[in-house]
TrEMBL record:
Domain notes: A pair of annexin repeats may form one binding site for calcium and phospholipid.
The protein's name in its UniProt record: Annexin
Region Disordered, residue ranges: 1-30
Gene Ontology biological process: response to cold; response to heat; response to salt stress; response to water deprivation
Domain of life: Eukaryota
Ranges of compositional bias, category Polar residues: 11-25
Keywords: Annexin, Calcium, Calcium/phospholipid-binding, Metal-binding, Repeat
Keyword Transferase included in the entry's annotation: no
Gene Ontology cellular-component annotations: cytoplasm; plasma membrane
């Protein structure tokens, strides 16, 4: 049950503490191995049926034990969360997502549900939200660029498969039917690609394709077949080499030259493509900064950036954020959010145990 009259249930689980200096291992938690993600998981993870029982207990009775929800779901990786969801369905013949929907509220509910979904399903639904909007502005279309260019080829393939299964239509069909040229051409090319995912670089190709990109930018032919083909098929390591070669040959980075030529929809999306490939951490640090700075908070963008990157490169994002903002991501999240919503975000960025 949701909290009534502002009353919050006392959790039976250990109290979480914001602790900027303490390591996860000091409290029996560890960062995910082999990644720059900020997610901290227990050294010994309880079995999924135990997690489910604790979640069910958090929902039962008067009010909801939000601390228990944060403690459990905020410290489980994607495969562990999937096991919890499957086990919850088996034990109680109910959807965990549905119970979270009914038991939680507001921004806290939105971010917890976004986090609890399987990553391919999450991104498929994020794409669907964009494509069903009557008016799609650049900020919305950048979500499609993130899915296509800031994740692995295997993840993109999984997103496309889930999208088709959920909505009886392919992702590229919906892009083609709802987005006009020339943006459509670029986005269809990006989402239908399957890049080679190994570190393979040909310096000769980097040099020649840097020249082709420069020619297209000079003539403002941003949707030229060569541009779309290069950006949508080359592996990320090859493209980073091409971007570096471009800068060495012409004295400016690609995004700088595009900015100098215009600020339209296609130009803005091409710049997003560039940064998602060249430095995803810097790109998402900028997304988070834009969601916080100014009047009000863009919770959708803030949630998306933190949820999608917590298991990938949030440590790097925090570093980039500090460089560009002169403040820490932690301080800005604390200053711009509140309550359980704030606590869950801090948990995902590795600042709260």
């Amino acid at each position: 049950m949701r909290r009534f009259f502002g009353k919050k249930r006392t959790s039976s689980l250990p109290k979480q503490n914001a602790s900027a200096g303490s390591s996860a291992s000091e409290k029996g938690y560890k960062l995910m191995s082999g990644s720059m993600g900020s997610l901290k998981i227990p050294e010994t993870v309880p079995p999924p049926d135990q997690d489910c029982q604790r979640l069910k207990k958090a929902f039962d009775g008067f009010g909801t034990d939000e601390d228990a929800v944060i403690w459990i779901l905020g410290h489980r990786n994607a495969s562990q969360r999937r096991e919890i969801k499957d086990t919850y369905q088996q034990l109680y013949n109910k959807s965990l997502i549905d119970d979270l929907q009914s038991e939680l509220s507001g921004d806290f509910r939105d971010v917890v549900i976004l986090w609890t979904r399987d990553p391919p399903e999450r991104d498929a639904k994020l794409a669907r939200v964009v494509l069903t909007k009557k008016k799609k502005v650049v900020k919305h279309l950048k979500v499609l660029v993130e899915i296509a260019c800031a994740s692995s080829p295997n993840h993109l393939m999984a997103v496309r498969q889930v999208y088709s299964s959920l909505f009886d239509c392919s992702l590229e069909e919906d892009i083609a039917s709802t987005i006009s040229l020339p943006t459509r051409k670029l986005l269809v090319g990006l989402v239908t690609s399957y890049r080679y995912d190994k570190q393979l670089v040909d310096t000769g190709i980097a040099n020649s394709e840097a020249s082709r990109l420069h020619e297209a930018i000079e003539t403002k032919q941003y949707d030229h077949d060569h541009v779309v083909w290069i950006l949508s098929t080359r592996n990320f390591f090859q493209l980073r080499a091409t971007f570096e070669c471009y800068k060495q040959k012409y004295g400016h980075s690609i995004d700088q030259d595009i900015k100098s030529c215009g600020h339209g929809e296609l130009e803005s999306l091409l710049i997003a493509v560039y940064w998602c490939i060249a430095s995803p951490a810097k790109y998402f640090a900028e997304v988070i900064k834009d969601s916080i700075v100014g009047l009000g908070t863009d919770e959708d963008s803030l949630n998306r950036a933190i949820v999608t990157r917590a298991e990938i490169d949030m440590i790097k994002i925090r570093e980039e954020y500090s460089k560009m903002s002169k403040t820490s991501l932690v301080d800005d999240v604390i200053g711009d959010t509140s309550g359980d919503y704030k606590n869950f975000l801090l948990t995902l960025i590795g600042e709260r145990l």
